[in-house]
Design brief:
heterodimer, A: Alpha-Beta Plaits, nine-stranded mixed sheet, B: alpha/beta, Rossmann fold, six-stranded mixed sheet, 20 helices, 19 strands
């Protein structure tokens, strides 16, 4: 038996597939592909599938990871090929390899955020939002709502472009078990701050996940 | 990407369950060169997870998409939060596959599964920008058609629907597409297409018929208003199921839907003839698939879907002639793949624990049976042909086999029902509980037993022997529910019942005529939609719609109709004769039962189709 780490993308309308639905989608795709997946023991056996870092609903990504246990009778190439034949088009497996790092060491994730406002926005306005020392926000947790300083969760941010009503951000946000923030909380607070009405469109795309390798921050793989 | 797609995609951020609207599920069909094809929008007038559970839509969707000259895309009723976003952002209703406006399609087809979805049809047309009345649609507008069980009396929708398709769609849907292509190249006007297809058996163009009424509101006459149109429209069936289009794949949704599993249709029709049951008459004669074909289809379904559950589908599943063989052979291909097999619609008179043991390997919790009436007298009236001994024996087998929960379905308000019949429901449930305690403690499971009694209110339906019957008034139904509640003395019995106001409107639209068209239009304007959902059903708005249009709903639901009266659906021929229904109606009052089609032919008329059980 071997645990494989599958790197995949979730694009287009696929961003509206929830985490639970994604799990079901993988389970059924593995069935269709007739891959020798391993099951848990117990009264209600389920396929051994673990996602490294859940993706918020409405966000696309080119770097998602899922670990799946297969019997040794199947090669990584076969897994990649047969799953791609059986997954819906918005989900594509990009790479199948042995896991290197652990999901519990994940610390952050990078997002490219494209926003269209109803009105013109300057680079300075956006930067002044992120320059605040305290950005009060409400975070939903399992126990209810919690007041947080959003700044603690924003590790780095760059305004890549700002032209007319459109601007693009590159944001590195806390992710993983220790501290996790959904990127749409950041865009919501920015929308409030700019005070120019509701954004016409917000597109968030995850490009990379990082983990702490003994104090060195490296790309998750 | 069309002009709406961007706005549509952003709107999905603001609503619940966006997966309802995204499409692109595995096995969904996306065609290039859209504009060069015959474009069929298959509309289900309810929310995605309900519509996606419907087998008929899956069959016709894949069948039409197998044609290289046709594209069929799905459309569902947007939930109220999505409707608000669509209206706010001026986005018309879009198809699921290509996100194109419904009005871009050539034919917009609705499936009519239940009367309480009619307001959703109008709302969906309104959201699509298609005029509600067929008479107001221009040359460029799509044709709006409808099929499914409620289409057999589609008269309340006669002003709205351009044409109805009566019966099974496997053949006739292809014929209307062929006719569309011919008509399109001919360059003729809109009405010519309707004239062409009105010649196809099973197609009913309501605007080609005029209805005249008597002073008392009953029908004087229904007759064609042009030449070449037949007086009666006969439903279509597929004679040999094995030789027709067979569904061997299904779209696998992302989100959880109502029936999220493989549905294996094993036969059509029912041999029983319960007198209240519309499906029992509409789908005659009984036609079965062969076991070989079913096994072949089941294997393909498993390979093509990856589902972990398979359910057999039909009316009265235990009447399938080779059920034991089918189940044995299905288990051979499902067990190793960890696929659960489930059997719905079991009858108490031929229930086998051995069979249940086989299919339910893990969960042993609840079983459901439908005696429908509380006394033998009333079960004879409705021709349910289930004896109390059968139910008690079955309960004994089930309890002995480790079950400790049983659900029992009944109807209240059935013709000839008395107080004794209502109290009989409680008695029967108590007898079932008694059976549990007769079983030695070491055999039965758990210390106590639960029997859940559910009642629905009887709705007289067209094409049944009870079509002439009045429905009980709402207040009578409520007092019967109260009587039953008071008759239940044991805490082991829990009782739940259906809202009577919904049943009343169901009766009105089931037996309604064309004069209800204006009421539907008014109700939609008042905001009626999702009437099948308790949280959205607004009875007051419906009453307002009736009174504004000067239509008395009680005329349709509460009137005892004479056998001599012309019924709004008399020009539709389902293959079962009106004489037979009258005879069955009389026999109900004599408390006499009618044997099943396999025991003896009772001469209903369905032999005219030349196939099925009539020739076994």
């Amino acid at each position: 038996m071997s645990k494989w780490r599958l790197k995949f993308s979730k694009l287009g309308m696929g961003k509206y597939i929830s985490h639970l639905d994604l799990l079901r989608t993988f389970t059924r795709s593995i069935h269709r592909a007739d891959l020798p997946v391993r099951y848990s023991q117990g009264f209600n056996p389920h396929q051994l599938i673990t996602f490294s870092l859940p993706l918020a609903l409405g966000v696309t990504s080119e770097t998602e990871f899922v670990d799946i246990d297969f019997e040794d009778t199947v090669s990584s190439d076969e897994i990649l090929m047969r799953l791609n034949e059986n997954l819906p088009p918005d989900i594509r497996i990009l790479k199948v390899s042995q896991p290197v790092c652990k999901a519990r060491d994940i610390v952050s994730a990078r997002y490219i955020i494209d926003i269209t406002s109803t009105d013109g926005v300057s680079k300075e306005e956006i930067e002044s939002f992120f320059a605040q020392s305290n950005i009060c926000a409400t975070k939903k947790t399992k126990k209810g709502e919690k007041e947080i300083n959003l700044k603690d969760f924003i590790k780095d941010v760059n305004v890549l472009s700002a032209k007319g009503n459109c601007f693009r951000l590159d944001a590195l946000l806390s992710a993983g078990g220790e501290a996790n923030i959904k990127p749409d909380i950041v865009t919501k607070k920015l929308e409030e701050f700019l005070n120019k009405g509701e954004f016409e469109s917000v597109d968030i795309h995850r490009t990379e996940i990082f983990f702490d390798n003994d104090k060195k921050i490296e790309s998750f793989c | 990407m069309n002009i709406y797609e961007r706005k549509f995609e952003q709107a999905l951020k603001k609503i619940q369950k966006p997966a309802r609207y995204i499409g692109n599920e595995f096995n969904s069909v996306h065609k290039e060169n859209f504009d060069g094809l015959v474009k069929f929008a298959f509309c289900f007038p309810d929310v995605y997870e309900v519509g996606m559970s419907h087998l008929g839509m899956k069959i016709l969707y894949h069948m039409m998409n197998e044609r290289s000259d046709t594209v069929c895309e799905r459309v569902f009723a947007p939930w109220v939060d999505m409707e608000e976003e669509l209206r706010k952002n001026d986005i018309p209703l879009l198809s699921l596959e290509s996100h194109r406006p419904v009005s871009d399609f050539d034919i917009v087809g609705f499936t009519l599964q239940y009367e309480m979805s009619y307001s959703n049809i109008l709302n969906m047309l309104d959201l699509s920008g298609i005029p509600l009345k067929s008479s107001e649609r221009g040359e460029d507008a799509p044709f709006v058609c409808a099929g499914g069980p409620c289409a057999y009396n589609g008269e309340p929708l006669a002003d709205i629907i351009d044409f109805f398709i009566l019966g099974e769609g496997e053949e006739v849907n292809n014929e209307i597409i062929d006719a569309f292509k011919e008509w399109k190249t001919s360059g003729e006007d809109r009405i010519s297409y309707l004239e062409r297809i009105s010649k196809i058996e099973g197609v009913y163009v309501p605007s080609f018929y005029d209805v005249e009424y008597k002073n008392d509101g009953t029908i004087e006459e229904v007759k064609p208003n042009r030449s070449g149109v037949s007086e009666k429209i006969k439903k279509r069936i597929v004679k040999e199921l094995d030789n027709s289009y067979i569904l061997d794949k299904m779209i696998v949704p992302f989100m959880d839907i109502v029936h999220d599993r493989i549905t294996l249709e094993i036969f059509r029709g029912c041999i029983r003839g319960c007198r209240f049951c519309q499906a029992g008459y509409l789908y005659r004669p009984v036609r079965e698939h062969s076991v070989d074909k079913l096994i072949e289809t089941a294997q393909k379904m498993i390979d093509n879907t990856g589902y972990e559950e398979m359910s057999l589908s039909s009316l009265s599943t235990s009447d399938f002639t080779c059920l034991q063989e089918l189940v044995d052979r299905l288990l051979e291909i499902t067990v190793d793949k960890r696929i659960n097999l489930s059997l719905p619609s079991l009858r108490v008179d031929n229930f086998s624990m051995e069979l249940m043991e086989k299919v339910q390997t893990v969960k042993k919790s609840g079983l459901t049976f439908a005696p429908e009436a509380g006394t033998q007298r009333l079960r004879d009236v409705i021709n349910k042909n289930v004896l109390e001994e059968d139910l008690l024996r079955t309960a004994g087998i089930a309890f002995g086999g480790g079950y400790n929960r049983i659900k029992l379905y009944f109807m209240i308000g059935l013709p000839t029902e008395t107080q004794e019949d209502v109290e009989g429901i409680a008695d029967l449930a108590e007898k079932v509980i008694g059976i549990f305690y007769q079983i030695p403690k070491e055999i039965r499971k758990g210390r106590s037993v639960t029997v859940t009694v559910s009642t629905s209110s009887f709705v007289p339906k067209p094409f049944t022997p009870f079509q002439w019957e009045p429905q009980n008034r709402i207040e009578d139904l409520v007092s019967k529910q109260k009587l039953l509640k008071e008759s239940i003395k044991t805490r082991n019995i829990s009782y739940n019942w259906h809202q009577s106001h919904v049943s009343f409107l169901e009766a009105v639209f089931a037996k309604g005529d064309r004069r209800l068209g204006d009421v539907l239009i008014k109700a939609q304007k008042l905001g009626c939609r999702f009437d099948g959902w308790d949280e959205h059903f607004d009875y007051e708005k419906w009453l307002e719609a009736f009174s504004t249009c000067g239509v008395d709903p009680e005329f349709y639901a509460y009137r005892k109709i004479d056998h001599s009266e012309i019924l709004p659906w008399d020009h539709i021929d389902i293959g079962v004769s009106k004489q037979f229904l009258m005879k069955e109606h009389d026999k109900a009052y004599e408390e006499k039962t009618t044997p099943s089609c396999r025991e003896k032919c009772s001469g209903c008329g369905a032999t005219s189709f030349g196939g099925g059980v009539c020739f076994e």
